[in-house]
Predict the structure.
Amino acid sequence: MPRRARVDWDAVHAAASDRLILVRVLLELGVPSSTIAFRCRKVGGGWWRPLLGLVALDRGALTPRQRLVAALLVSGDDAVVTGLTACRLYGLQRVPVHEQVHVLVPHERRRRSEGFLLVERTGRMLPAVTRDGIRCAPLVRALIDGARRLDRIDEVRALLAEAVQQRRVTVPALRAELEAGSGRGSALVRAVIVELEDGIRSAAEAWQRELVATMAEFPEVHWNADVHLEDGTFLACPDGFVDDCALALDVHSFAHHADLEKFDGTMRRQAEMIAAGLVVVPITPRELREDPDGVKRKLRASLDQARRRPRPPVVMKPAR
């Protein structure tokens, strides 16, 4: 009778990162293929195979971290997480809910997407950045990779605008990454980057810009331009500013109202603009969505009011 192979199970468990281990590593550690098959059987087995070539040493759904570890284990030592999952790891909040773990691998790698694993082959691998122990693509690459796979422009706006608002990336860097990468799925991303280049910094601001563009008689609006007092003191950066009559357009979002500190800051900024002589038009995202005609009437009335009084001595500096 053949002798049963002796397996160093301590070595097996030590090699299993987050209780996950490649089949080839199990074989290298002396675990027979028959033992692997027996322990991975559907009924009664303690192990299971979440991805081709990978074994989980515990039954049950993988945790979010295990999914990341699993994706990198099967994709190779040079693979990196990119897209929406990487954006989450970088700490961004306005990331749409998603199930897949998107990884980049060198173009010559023959690894297919399966289950929750989305594999993208690329000839332009960039140096990895480690976030919470996970190899990630640089943030600007992750943003463009993730945005290219979204099909709603407001989701693209929210994702890219958050990163720009937090000064995590610059608009020129987004433009450069878009032009350097794949053109697939780039139409919405390209449109949003044009908005960002024009100073737009949120979905609601983009809605406002689209609405103003339909008002042929309305003067030019500068988006997110800095406004200074005559002596050079910074006053505010309203969402929109009509320079010839010092009219400020300010979007009041629910997110700011739900955060008392941000709401106080919004009210303080509005009071300071009014005290400096600006006519301020507060607009909510809900108004833009549900009553665009009412917003147009409000804008026209405020423009007439601003033009009837002398322009205050403030100086505008366009958004950079």
